[in-house]
Prior knowledge:
Chain A is of the alpha+beta class. Chain A contains 14 helices and 23 strands. In chain A, 46% of the residues are buried.
Amino acid sequence: MSTTKSNIIGTDRDYGSLVKEDRVHSSIFTDESVFEDEMERIFHKTWLFALHESEVPKKGDFKLLKLGRFPVIAVRDENEEVQLMINRCRHRGAQVCEATQGNAKSFQCWYHGWTYNTKGDLVGVTGEEAYDKTFDAKEHGLTKVARVGNYRGFIFASHSKEGQSLDDYLGPAKKFIDILIDASPTSEIEVKPGVVTKTMYRGNWKQIGMDGYHPHYVHVSVFKIFSKRESTTGSAVGAIHLEDPFSDSSPSLTRGFPNGHAALDFRFQRLPHAKDNIEELQRSEDGRKYVEDMISRYGKEHAEELIAWHGDPHLGVFPNLQLIHDHIRVVIPISPSETQVLMYPVFLKGVGQEINNKRLRAHEAFYGPASNGSPDDAEIFERVQRGLEGDANPWIQLGRGMNREETDSDGTVSARISDEITQRAQMQEWKRLMTE
Amino acid sequence: MAKQLLNAGSDVINKGVVSVEQQLRLERFLTYEAALMDEHEYDRWMELWIGDDITYWVPCNSDDQDPNAGVAIIYDDRPRLLERMMRLKDKAAHAFRPRARLIRNVSGVVPLSAKGEELEVVSSFSLGEIRTGTENIWFGKCHYVLVDTSEGFRIQWKKVMLLNNDEAMPNLTFLV
């Protein structure tokens, strides 16, 4: 579906010349026709995160999504499979589902009454006698999203029938996703239907990403608050101790993966604090049990790593998924200068309520429209957008730390925490998809 | 405050649970509180809160989402609210600088119950915001537990139900 359309509206712009290794041209953040091409060449082609399978736990549970320009119904069908179908009646094209979430046995279009089951089969055509034998209901089911993949409960979708497998696409980023899932002593996480912090900013979708350089400036007011506390226990910035994870002299790294994924890799910075984290946890009953259950599930050594890592991969999966602190973040581009950000708090299964409550309060403290953190990010993205509207000296610098990159054995590239490896990884994938 | 009013008995709607004079005091107090919020007078607004056991709650996703089972936009006790105040006053809290220009209208002030010095009150507001060239309109319903003290009304518990609490929201750059 995407390939034919891109031929119609595709521009002849030379995207290769707009993305250099160390800089990008600001028109890619502001130009409406670039945005149109991004929809076709990126969002209608590559793998997108759709939802976590726990959001539709029971047969008939559904949720509406927007994947690129397509309105999509995600529904658990009668065989317990999660179906992703375009929310568009095969008769005249009306959306067949308007509720954003719920439970349904079927979806009926209220334009002329056509009805589909949870597998998307057309099971009811009103006044069927008006169609002759050449009309085959089997050929008029809801259109399925071309490809669907599942990595440990994270459901991804691609509107393109062909392309890399999800497994190859995620590659070495998979073991970072594991950091979140395995923060649960039963390796199960839950995303509750309808529990989500929803924000928007008046800026481009490519602004929001992994950036280890900005916290000292954008979030300076939050660091001041932390400096007044005895410890940052329970805080959502960095780890559970006072050492600054955003210092270039710390063991924190930025990491670039193949296919545009990127992480702020705090593993080596957090690991030495495992003992403190465990001591802190052992002050409460739920905490003691958590430590015990983690050790019996993963063994002492790995359990200590997982506890130190806080279930926080700080990973961006290109183009629309980020796993940061206590939440799953979905980025939805609305226009070149408007972006929605949906942040789903993740509940760990197999833990006491106190642990999840603490995660919720930490999430609220830093993320959301009235929190300590994300409003300042949104404000800065909007300042960037206003600045970029003028194309004077249009090149945006992304070259920080190119002189100190190291390639690791798994093919990922790393450098100091303030280095712009993450932006470079994202933009090189953007260029690959836009020029392919 | 549709829900509370729909469920209220005739003593609340017809007779009223406070005197006319008390009603006028309440309306003046809530208008004063709104003025402090509109003018970003954080310290003076903070003085309106009484006691250590306070709750300032702005639910997310629905008006009643349980903060122990789901997320909130704001769910502050006194220590968290004091940290919020510290940040709002900080010149480096970029989302609040420049400050938004605000006007809100408070209406629909109805006391639901009066027990001793404690009053349960609902109200609603509409608010115009202008900041960095963008105008936003906000609507909300409020539910208070107030204490009538010798120094005037004080807030013990406040819940603010924003009309857009399940929509993608721009920054909330002011107190509600």
